[in-house]
Amino acid sequence: MTKLTITTGDEAAFFTRGRRIAQAADRGEPIPSEHVLSFE
User: In the chain, what are the domain boundaries?
Assistant: First the structure.
């Protein structure tokens, strides 16, 4: 099942999330299936 998150955020939060996902991929961990809808 896909997780949907609706939130407010900024550019820093966007790149923090991307960095966390990239680090998990580098460690060989599975990437969670999720959709994020963020408003600034």
Answer: 8-39
What would the DSSP string read from start to end of 1-39? --EEEEEE--HHHHHHHHHHHHHHHHTTPPPP-EEEEEE
Matching residue, tokens 């991929």: 25
The residue assigned the tokens 């896909």 is 2
Q: What is the pLDDT of residues 1-40, one digit of tens each?
A: 678 999 999 999 999 999 999 999 999 999 988 899 999 8
- The residue type of 18 is G
